[in-house]
Amino acid sequence: MTTATPPAICGACNHHQEDHDTRKGHCTTCQTECAYRPPRALACGYCYEERGREVHPHPECPVGHLDTVVDRWPALQERAGTRPTTSWPPAMGVARLMSEEERQEHAAERADTAPDAPGPRPAPVDVNVLDVMTTVDTGLVTAADWLASRIQREPIKTPTGKGWGDEAHKAVVLLAAKDAADPARWKLTGQRSAPAAARWLAGRLANRPGPCRQLDNGERQAVAEVARMASELMRRVLGDARRMTPVPQPCPAPCGGQLVVEGGDGEPPVVRCEDCGRTWAEAASGIRELTQEFR
């Protein structure tokens, strides 16, 4: 893992190094009486503090990926309870390249699944989102169980029996109870959801206080990979990440190359030929016809 280049901003006030008069210990931008202090590198290895706080904006930061899971989980739950309104890849003008038989099958499928089609309608649910939720939940909780078995120490145990009523013993019992209930301790019972596991794993990656030793390089890389995959799955299904999918029909240009659809991140989708480089987008009128654009 390569450590990111430290930014030339002050770790205290977040303004550029050139805005500071180091002789007077003064920031000319915010008028704060602080000498320039380089930002502190965070334990994730990718990010630096901002205004004295841990912020993980780097796109490859595993702590940032886990924060995405926590922040976007409610949106995923809400999306799971709604009927899918869009499909991937979008049809766009590629439908014109379909055969007549394929078009008839596609029309019959849409007629059968339309909300106003005859017969009973299933409860609104997005199965794809539910699958992603299950995958992310299982992956993060399993990763937390695995990591806890390696780095988390057992709770303090105290002997019990007659004659143990002195103040020293009471203090030890209280200490043991607090240690067992430490919120930084991962538990095998109770709240074992994807957000809970993400918070705990993020704390381990950031070396926050807790009844655990620090992670070695292998453990850190394993957790980082799980965090990246979970964040990527969620962002993709929520439309936050750009996707690219091959199209079965060849390019209509003489090259006959491979077409791919790019989109899924909120930006208008486009069809691109990987051979000749031509791209197509839907017309602004909303009619599903191809507009050719050359690079």
Offer a few descriptive terms.
36% helix, 295 residues, two-stranded antiparallel sheet, alpha+beta
Quick overview of this protein structure:
It contains six helices and seven strands. With 295 residues, the protein is α+β, with helices and mostly antiparallel strands.
Cα separation of the termini: 36 Å
Low-confidence stretches are 286-295
Enumerate the strands of the largest sheet in spatial order, edge to edge or round the barrel: 3-4-5-6-7
Total helices: the number is 6
Residue-averaged pLDDT:
78
Shape verdict: flat
Q: Hey, roughly how much beta strand do the residues contain? A: 5-15%
Structural class designation? alpha+beta
**Could you give a short account of the major beta sheet?**
5 strands, antiparallel
| Strand segment tally | 7
Helix content: 25-40%
Q: Give the topology string: H per helix, E per strand.
A: EEHHHHHHEEEEE
Radius of gyration using CA atoms only: 27 Å
